[in-house]
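so my prof wants the structure for this chain in the tokens format not the other one, which i didnt know existed until like an hour ago. anyway here's the sequence
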Amino acid sequence: MSPAPFRAIVVEDDPSWQQILSEILSDSGLEVDTASSVDEAAQALKSEPHRLAVVDLSLSPNDHNNQDGLRVLDAVRRLDPNCQSILLTGFATVELAVTALTDYGVFTFLRKESFQRAQFRDIISRILATAPPTTAADSVKGAEKISAAPKEATETALVVDDDAGWRSILEELLTDAGFQVRACSSFGDAMGYLRRETFALAVIDLSLNRVSTHTADPDLDGYQLLSSSSMDGTPTIVVSGIASAEEIQRIYSEHAISAFIEKQNFDRAVFRRVVDEVRASHPTHNKLSLLTEREREVLDLLAQGLTNKEIAEKLYITPNTVKRHLKAIFEKLEVHTRSAATAIATGG
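here's what i got, hopefully its the right format
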């Protein structure tokens, strides 16, 4: 007997959007439940385990300030902890997206006005590729198997540009340079990546999902991403059409970027050289990018001074699994002690 398919839930008060999302999820092999209110969503989450929840922010057609979707996200965390969430809305600000990603742990954030079926299918595929075990009894054991599975030790780069042509060019050049590339077009998807992974390099356009402009606008989504990448210490190259001398100087001083390349004067050879120079100037951060998501979680807890047993309890894994992760971490960071690994993790 083949295993039962994973379930998804769509929490959306608009019947048209409910139908669109349900069709795409069904085509991806998921059984789909639907709900249009917080109460309906909570009941569905209690009744069946779900792998994916797609949640609209506003669940009131006459109130654009309604944020019942955040209550649903909180219910997902409490009632269905193995379920990944996607927030989809037409009314959200950048600040709200950050809140959803950081406080509610959503996988990514998508705007209705720039919704693309292909991008949505790709996100579903990425979530299902890391699907947990199908039974609760196997969840801890299965999580250990997933985190212990070997991954290719390669540096990872993030490309963020809403122009498909530019994404393709940058992805090709970075792949040729030996990077594994995560490419995306929206602020929400990029923030999701930055929350989940450590990157050896980020290449960011300043204007995302908006009319192209040569005029600086501090509200552009790219500026918000620069703040996040610089806070994480991720070496960042800006490739943008915004090119006034004053603005470029301000970006260098406020966001500590590694390089600014103007799209109108873009040269592949220059880009390759800049990438090599940035890579050479950030060897420590590049080492961190070799770690898997689970290894980075272990390292962060190690840096907080936790013992192997305490780390195991925090991550719901065994102490032996922690030891295996630490062995892999030490090898990738080329260190032999906990204090040396902590120094790299904290930039000390």
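also thought this was worth mentioning. The beta strands are 7-11, 31-35, 52-56, 84-89, 108-111, 156-160, 180-184, 201-204, 236-240, 259-262.
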